[in-house]
Amino acid sequence: PCAARSMRAVIARASGNKTKAILLMLATVFLFSAMDATAKALSQQIGTVPTIWARYLGQTLLVIILVSPRLKTVMRTRYPKLQLARSVFLMCATIMFFFAISNMGLAEASAIMSTNPLFITIGAAFFLGEIPTVRTLIGGAIVISAAFYEMAIHRN
To answer: What is the DSSP-derived secondary structure letter of residue 130?
Structure first.
């Protein structure tokens, strides 16, 4: 409960403040990077499957602690199939990513992951009917070219 209150307080203070929101995003990028590095190190030490198990056990315990005061409210959804599909997609993506980084460098994996906005744009157009702007397409091209450049550097 105390951790949940402090997390809500951080998010509430960031609401409406672009600088704080940017700092939260930078912290998020750092935490994802730390998780990736930890996953790679653990995969080499104990194997990929136990690493995945530990990640999801830790996440489950943390979420239970954070949402336990509001569990009934949080568990209600009008779209249970969509929520389940999202959970399955996230778990599959995590499993594949953890197996990938156990066989390649983090820099290469991160370069490949930087193509994610392109796939989000394509998915948004296909599934949600969102039409990408010229600016979005140019940004996507820049990200893709940077990712391929990064992969080329690490290959040589």
So the answer is: P
